[in-house]
Amino acid sequence: MLKQWSITAVVMLGSACASFYETTYDYNRKFEEGSLDKALAALREDNQYRKPSVKFLYYVNNGILLSILGQYEESNSYFEKAFLFGEDYRLNIAREAASYFTNPMVTIYRGEDHEHLMVLYYKAMNFLKMGKHEEALVECRRLNIRLQQLSDRYSSENKYRRDAFIHTLMGIIYQADKDWNNAFIAYRNAFEIYEEDYERLFGVTAPDQLKADLLVAAWNTGFTDEFEFYKSKFNWPDFQINKPDGELVFFWHNGLSPVKDEWSINFVVNRQSDNMFLFSNTDMNMQYSFYVGNDDERASLSNLEVFRVAFPRYVERPTYYTHASIQSSDSSYPLQLAEDVNQVAIKCLQERMGLEFSKSLLRVALKKSMEYSARKEDRSFGAIIGAINAATEKADTRNWQTLPHSIYYSRVPLKEGANPVIFMLNRSGGEADQHRYTYTVSKGQTLFHTFTSLESLPVSRY
Prior knowledge:
This protein is an alpha+beta fold. It is built from 17 helices and 12 strands. Among the domains are: 162-241, Serine Threonine Protein Phosphatase 5, Tetratricopeptide repeat (Alpha Horseshoe); 266-308, no CATH class. The longest helix has 25 residues, at 353-377. The radius of gyration is 26 Å and the shape is elongated. The two termini are 38 Å apart.
């Protein structure tokens, strides 16, 4: 029975030893080059993405490609499938059990916390592009509820529990509908989260655009005390309320989010008592105690001195463009950082690393136990199992790799009629790329535009 299991394990894990980015390279390359139609075809033909274990990633990659291509309704149908997958997911017990003997890449990928939130962000943006403001607000509310559900799993006081950018987006939508009271509440909530959470967790401060919008909403709601309070708080004594004919809210999705790689740690095994074992790494000040009740497992662990455990980590893809602005009517409007998706991704992975560590340690212990049992049965076969264990000790490197690195935005006043503007993208060396647009706006109208730049700087290894 043990030999039969080992053969099955080899078959299941033949393709699991490369990182997920490497096994889906053709699709990633086409996406990063901006060949979106070809990327969509490659995605739908890719055997890796057609596996049931990565159904979530198949849904979200279809969703983001279709969104960038302007096919908003079809995009939202895929994003809704991804959302429901996250809501309705049930553990596949056989695959979960297999992961303890092999590696987590044989399990169904459920998505990282921030990935579930980005599904709802993209749905909201798609609805905005279709002019469906109330539907966009529903997705923002769903995002806030989902984040609360996800953050409730963690006990740390420094956990990611509130999203400032989504409150900003809600305020923008309310302002477009001239719902000034709700706009003020949303902007005030957003500013509070930037001030209390984002600066500490992600190094992101409240954008000046948010501050200006908060003052405009306070003034139009008739909250003169709040208007004066925030004007003083921002040290903007000369701030003036302007009333343009129309407005453009421009969102910039800059670069690409991090990809998952793996790193490994060596642990020393010490027997603390008859049933207790201590796994430790003194260099990293890590110690984990495990109760082991099975006689064979205790015997196998007693013979174990040092072992290696693999964990996932994110590798940042640095942005090619460092900043951007919009030139309109002889004025310049800088795009301002509202959401650092890269840092949010890293934070979400850190929050679940405690669970990841304990699961990985248990996985290696069970693998070593299986190896010990095999050696008792057949020394040569036990050596084969040991080689398989070493080869298959891998971290789960699957993730949604086509998200932006960061999200910027700005509000641009427009005159009634046609408005030519220039979108300026600046590189680190000072060079700039230009994109020209003409926006036609009617009196009191707010337009929404999203620009996605897929360029990123090379990294040493994915």
